[in-house]
Amino acid sequence: MPPIFPETVLRTDRLLLRPFTAEDVEDTRAACSDELTQQWLPLPRPYSTEHAASWCTDVSHRLRTSGDGVHFAITDLGSGRLLGTVGLKKTDWPARVSEVGYWSAPWARGRGVMTEATRTLGEWLLGEQGFQRLQLFAATGNTASRRVAEKAGFHKEGVLRNAGHVHDGRVDLVVFSLVPDDLAGSREAEPEPLGIPVTDAERGGAR
Ligand SMILES: CC(C)(COP(=O)(O)OP(=O)(O)OC[C@H]1O[C@@H](n2cnc3c(N)ncnc32)[C@H](O)[C@@H]1OP(=O)(O)O)[C@@H](O)C(=O)NCCC(=O)NCCS
């Protein structure tokens, strides 16, 4: 049996990172059907409720118990609403190296959520879990993802030519890394409270 990450809950002042549940299916379907998510991630197209249910109740959990990584639902600590996902994949246990991946829901973008979640996951991996390197790959054209990497304290290492694929074809990937020495660096300024709406009417309006 390969090593596996423990089932874990991580908290910040604004966010709760926890395993996916059946409660997350509808918001996951909406977020993974979103145009920007579909532009940069090679997810099924169209992305159905069945795809979302499989991810939330089965696949995301099996990827942990197989040793590949661990996947978190990022939720608003105040309202409980799903804001996105951040996870580890392709973990190389002997080398103590893993790779981070993420999407944020359209209703949560531009508020520093993914920067905060990625930094928190990096601190857990390189601290408590004793890992030596967290890698992040972003398409050269994916400005928001590159910005998340920089703001979370990752270092840009270079460009991997023709290394990725999205629905529109091949892409070059910028490779970033976070290593234990980087964690001495301070976070950016304290983020603003989220104020994510929770009522059905508000939710409908946000999509
Ligand atoms: C990448 C993504 C996760 C960022 O999530 P987020 O919660 O909005 O991230 P943050 O708010 O922490 O930071 C986003 C940063 O990108 C910036 N940004 C977003 N779109 C931008 C654009 N088109 N041009 C320039 N900057 C942009 C934001 O302004 C912000 O930077 P700032 O704080 O300096 O202003 C989100 O855009 C997403 O889900 N994209 C689709 C899926 C995806 O690309 N996943 C990653 C694959 S590698």
UniProtKB/TrEMBL annotation:
Protein name per the record: GNAT family N-acetyltransferase
Pfam families cross-referenced by the UniProt entry: Acetyltransf_3
Region (Disordered): 186-207
Natural source organism: Kitasatospora saccharophila
InterPro entries recorded: Acyl_CoA_acyltransferase, GNAT_dom, Ribosomal_N-acetyltransferase
Taxonomic classification: Bacteria, Bacillati, Actinomycetota, Actinomycetes, Kitasatosporales
Ranges of residues in domain N-acetyltransferase: 15-180
